[in-house]
Specification:
Length: 241
């Protein structure tokens, strides 16, 4: 009986030592995994870039752009190298990077039900074209399938064609320079009491699609707007000068 009791005590003690050893091993392994993950996990700055920070080179669809880091709208995109897409914001008409708080306003596509005031912000998205037709090809071959036949006169030589109901672009207008549509054209949502109209003007820079988003109210000065787009493209894509 005494021998059996001693054996049980020794067995219990051995099990306790084994459990303690396993716990220590697990803690050490977890600490090692945490350390390795911390070291290897990619990180990006959480703070806004300094106003004097130099432009950084980014690559989208194989095209190199030099962008001011303070114009990049999310911290996770604020690094040099390849990107699937990058979102920027600039003040209009200075074309300078806005402060970080203003740059966080949401991107608005025509048709989105997000109230964004018509202010001085110009939003730009750069992404690969993928399987989508280039903007000029869409103007010539896709949009005419869905627009009305009669255009209305817009400001300063612009023409406005309404997209038909039931089309992929319903509730939007195709706005273009009547004499030379390829010179300037945009898709615009209509103004409403709850949401001011928003326009998208797209350009192809090599294999990258550059989308400019701006308030529809700016169309009254579309010539200066187009000239600003030209200057901005040259500033962020020096190789295309």
């Amino acid at each position: 009986m005494a021998v059996h009791a001693v054996f049980e005590r020794k067995s219990g003690k051995a099990r306790g030592v084994l459990v303690l050893a396993l716990l220590i091993t697990a803690v050490v392994a977890a600490a090692a995994v945490t350390f390795v993950s911390y070291v290897l996990w990619p990180t990006w700055p959480n703070l806004a870039a300094a106003p004097e920070a130099p432009a950084i080179p980014v690559t989208v669809a194989g095209v190199v752009f030099d962008v001011p880091p303070q114009a990049i709208r999310t911290a996770m995109q604020r690094y040099s190298g390849p990107h699937d897409r990058i979102d920027l914001a600039f003040a209009w008409p200075s074309l300078t990077a806005p402060d970080s708080a203003a740059a966080k306003k949401p991107i608005v596509e025509p048709g989105d039900e997000i109230a964004v005031p018509a202010d001085d912000r110009l939003f730009i998205s750069i992404a690969g074209l993928g399987n989508v037709l280039p903007p000029l090809e869409r103007l010539k071959t896709i949009y005419p399938r869905y627009t009305e036949n009669q255009a209305d006169a817009g400001p300063d030589g612009l023409a406005i064609l309404q997209f038909r109901g039931g089309s992929p672009y319903q509730s939007e207008d195709l706005v273009y320079f009547a004499e030379r549509p390829e010179e300037f054209f945009a898709r615009c949502s209509k103004d409403s009491a709850a949401l001011p109209g928003t326009c998208i003007h797209e350009r192809l820079v090599d294999a990258a699609s550059v989308s400019f988003r701006f308030p529809r109210a700016w169309l009254g000065d579309w010539r200066n707007l187009k000239a600003g787009f030209d200057r901005l493209i040259v500033s962020i894509h020096p190789a295309g000068k």
